């Protein structure tokens, strides 16, 4: 979902140990080194741990929800604005308004496979056919799940304003509560999934029309959505990129030269292997201490916000069959939408004048991740830039703050498109 400990400055000793293991050792000694070296294990552990949300899927016994429908068409929008959000702003929510929630599975047809995709739909009781649609996409990590956006979605849809909103949150294939097939996951596969979820006639979003939907994504998900839009595969009315990232945990530290790409491939193959793969994954990722360590070190800004319930819920996700395949790709850079900051900035620049794009940076993001977010401040194609409390998962740690900024952007977007 985000860039793990490798996104934060490592000590000289950690860097030397990790670099020696990855760059200098023959592969025969690579695995033993990781198993036997405490520092190396912690380094890789840091690179693979992840982040997400709060509780298991909601399955209300009776929830009626209308299919999405929108009547927006892109026109013009307001110029760039930059601001910071501090503290806990008041949120204008009608506490008496209940939120209807529906959870379901969509069968994604991909290369002869039928993959069950978990998604949730949220709408306020005042929602009707004129409500506008939001698609929320979780950050990519080994504990990615729809749960990270749930509080934000409920906050937004229960607001009683001139425009009402309906939110759909979807799990990535291979992550969260979606099916976890053993496939060759890469950027193109993930992009294809988002495009199909938006455009396929039988998908939950089909009745909305893809240029009527505002896409909100975190981490790599945000950048993937921007890339798909830049390539003309998606036509949302606006995009909100929350703590956007583009480089996987290992490439952001060790680079992408040919020798490193070879070693990434060997590591990826090992993690996917039937026996040793599970052993390495369980040791480095699928344990409570590892997950807790990463949440407290860089996923959350405030350690006191990391609860036992969150850790246990995330841990259970890592124990599902097939849960290691997407993290193996993410760790080694296969899910990176671009390969450099210049390409990252160009994705946004190519959207200049085409649709509103908001970037939400965070005050407590790890140094490397923060630098990439800050590169978008005032950048071409970014119509609004805000900064909120948090680190790599602000939507889960500070949902009210994030919801307020997103709601402001949504209202501004509607006004600009009239």
What is the gist of this entry?
One of its GO terms (cellular component) is chloroplast. InterPro entries: AB_hydrolase_fold (IPR029058). With 418 residues, this protein is α/β, with parallel strands linked by helices.
How would you describe the overall organization of this protein?
The chain is of the alpha/beta class and 418 residues long. Helix content is 40%, strand content 15%. It has helices at residues 12-24, 27-36, 38-48, 147-157, 187-199, 220-230, 251-254, 258-272, 276-284, 288-299, 308-318, 325-331, 341-349, 367-374, 394-397, 399-416, and strands spanning 81-84, 99-110, 113-124, 132-137, 165-170, 213-218, 238-242, 357-362, 384-388. Helix 14 links the parallel strand 8 (357-362) and strand 9. Helix 4 packs across helix 16 (399-416), helix 8 (258-272) packs across helix 9 (276-284) and helix 8 (258-272) runs antiparallel to helix 12 (325-331). Residues 1-80 and 86-95 have low confidence and may be disordered.
Task: Summarize the topology.
Elements: H1 12-24, H2 27-36, H3 38-48, E1 81-84, E2 99-110, E3 113-124, E4 132-137, H4 147-157, E5 165-170, H5 187-199, E6 213-218, H6 220-230, E7 238-242, H7 251-254, H8 258-272, H9 276-284, H10 288-299, H11 308-318, H12 325-331, H13 341-349, E8 357-362, H14 367-374, E9 384-388, H15 394-397, H16 399-416
Parallel strand pairs: 1-9, 4-5, 4-6, 6-7, 7-8, 8-9
Antiparallel strand pairs: 2-3, 3-5
């Amino acid at each position: 979902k985000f860039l793990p400990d490798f996104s934060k400055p490592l000590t000289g000793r950690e860097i030397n140990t990790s670099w020696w293991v990855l760059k200098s050792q023959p592969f025969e000694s690579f695995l033993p080194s990781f198993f036997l070296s405490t520092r190396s294990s912690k380094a890789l552990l840091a690179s693979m741990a992840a982040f997400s949300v709060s509780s298991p899927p909601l399955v209300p016994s009776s929830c009626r929800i209308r299919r999405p429908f929108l009547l927006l068409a892109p026109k013009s929008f307001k110029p760039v604005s930059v601001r910071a959000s501090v503290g806990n702003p008041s949120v204008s929510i009608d506490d008496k308004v209940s939120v209807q929630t529906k959870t379901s599975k969509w069968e994604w047809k991909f290369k002869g496979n039928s993959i069950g995709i978990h998604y949730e739909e949220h709408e306020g009781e005042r929602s009707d056919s004129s409500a506008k649609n939001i698609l929320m996409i979780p950050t990519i990590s080994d504990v990615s799940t729809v749960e990270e956006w749930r509080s934000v979605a409920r906050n937004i849809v229960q607001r009683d304003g001139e425009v009402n909103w309906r939110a759909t949150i979807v799990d990535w294939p291979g992550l969260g509560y979606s099916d976890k097939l053993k496939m060759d996951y890469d950027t193109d596969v993930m992009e294809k999934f988002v495009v199909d979820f938006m455009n396929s006639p039988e998908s939950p979003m089909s009745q909305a029309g893809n240029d009527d939907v505002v896409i909100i994504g975190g981490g790599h998900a945000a950048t993937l959505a921007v890339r798909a839009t830049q390539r003309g595969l998606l036509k949302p009315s606006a995009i909100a990129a929350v703590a956007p990232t583009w480089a996987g945990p290992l490439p952001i530290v060790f680079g992408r030269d040919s020798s490193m790409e070879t070693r990434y491939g060997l590591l990826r193959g090992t993690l996917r292997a039937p026996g040793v793969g599970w052993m390495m994954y369980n040791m480095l990722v699928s344990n409570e201490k590892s997950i807790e360590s990463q949440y407290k070190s860089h996923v959350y800004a405030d350690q006191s916000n990391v609860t036992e319930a969150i850790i246990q819920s995330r841990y259970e996700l890592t124990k599902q069959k097939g849960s290691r395949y997407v993290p193996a790709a993410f760790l080694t850079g296969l899910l990176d939408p671009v390969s450099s900051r210049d390409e990252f900035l160009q994705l946004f620049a190519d959207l200049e004048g085409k649709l509103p794009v908001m970037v939400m940076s965070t005050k407590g993001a790890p140094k490397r991740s923060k630098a990439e977010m800050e590169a978008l401040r005032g950048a071409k194609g970014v119509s609004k830039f805000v900064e909120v409390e948090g680190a790599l998962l602000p939507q889960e740690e500070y949902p009210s703050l994030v919801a307020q900024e997103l709601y402001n952007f949504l209202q501004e977007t509607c006004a600009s498109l009239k």
